[in-house]
Every structure is written in structure tokens, then in C-alpha cells.
Amino acid sequence: LLLAGVFSMYFHMTLSYVGQLLDELSILWTLAVAYSFWYPQAYFPKCIKTRRHFFWLTGITTVISTLMSFVKPTLNAYALNCIAFHLLYMTWRELKKCNDKRVHRMAAVMVMWWALAITSWISDRWLCWLWQAINFPYFHSFWHVLIALSLLYCCPLVIYFDVSYEMPSFKPRLEYWPSDSWPVVVPYVTLEEPHKQC
Asked: Does an H or E element contain 188, and which?
């Protein structure tokens, strides 16, 4: 994530082709690592039996995607944004199995921030001429802020679901810092340790 931030900053300062590739490829590789470690085994393709095999599948797919990104770089941003649809689908599938209202609320807030972010990104991409004409070139900046807010809610959700699968003896619970009643909060996951039998 640190490299993604540094390369994103470099790209937006220089607006160079190399900066664009570094920015987008660092995001691609960050997503690949996240998928490798946290993608639920219950959703593995039938031909994949272990996490190790899934690492290999993810690695090969990422290398091929990396090479393809040099062929048509203008499609990179669209392809990266399409990954969000898979994440939204996975969240929807997990929410169908979950009755915790806090989890549903956090997912709804995450989707709201994502919808605002993708609207800003599309507006910046497709209506750039309009925003330049009225001297309002800020939608790309809005995209960065809004997608960061969406990820602030996405990460604890992924952790919550991961704990549910990987450590079923613990009961994960979503909490908010500094308080549930504040309008702007930082969500996190706590684990309720099971009682030990002597």
C-alpha cells in the first residue's frame, strides 16, 4: 500500500507514462496480494484445492495482467475499477449469510462511498471537457478521497469475513472509533476470545 501511495503521488506530480504504469501496476499487485491472502477458500474454483495453489493462480494471472497492461495502458484504469464489481458481489454473498446489523450497515456505507467515488471517476474521465470549460477540474481529486473512504470500510469487512472463516472459534465484532455516535468514524474489528475449558 505504501508503494501504491508513493507511485500514485509520483504519477500525479509528473503525469508521465512511466508514472501511470507504476501507479496502476502497484495497485494491481496490492490487489493480487490481498486476494492471495484473504480470498475465502469457500469461493475457490473447484480445480483449486489449497491456498498454495490459489497463490500460484493469482500470481500467474497477475503476471499476465502486468504484461497486458503495457499493450493497451488506457484500459488499465477501467480493468482495475472492474475488480470492484467482484468485491461488491463477494460482499453481497457474505451479507446473505450474516445477520449482524453492524456488518450490513458498514457494507452499506462502503457501497455509498464507492458509488460516489466511481461517479466522480467516470465524470472526470468522460466529462473532462465540461469541467475544464467551467474551470472545475477537481473530480479526480474527489475520486481519490472517496475511494480511500470506501476502502476504510472495505478493509474491516474483509477482515471480519476472514476471521469468520479462518478462526471460527473467535467471534468477530465491528466497532467504531472514537464512538458509534460520531458522524465520522474509523471502523475496526475486535475479537471476542472464547472461554477456555480447563
From this structure: strand 186-192
Residue 21 placed within a domain: yes
The domain in which residue 1 lies consists of 1-75
Question: Cα separation of 109 and 105, whole Å?
Answer: 6
Residue 167 CB coordination number (10 Å): 12
Partners of 187 in the beta sheet? 176
Are residue 111 and residue 63 in the same domain, yes or no?
Answer: no
> Dihedral of CA 121/43/107/175: which sign?
negative
Q: Residue 198: pLDDT above 70?
A: no
Q: Report the domain count for the chain.
A: 2
Q: Which of 75, 106, 133 is the last residue of a domain?
A: 75
Residue 88 within a domain: no
Annotated binding site: 12, 140, 144
Longest dimension (CA), the chain: 73
Over residues 152-160, the mean pLDDT reads: 90
Asked whether residue 91 is domain-assigned, the answer is no
pTM summary value: 0.83
Query: What is the distance between the alpha carbons of residues 69 and 74, in angstroms, rounded to a whole number?
Result: 8
- Name which residue leads in pLDDT, 10 or 194: 10
- Binding site residues for Zn(2+), as ranges? 12, 140, 144
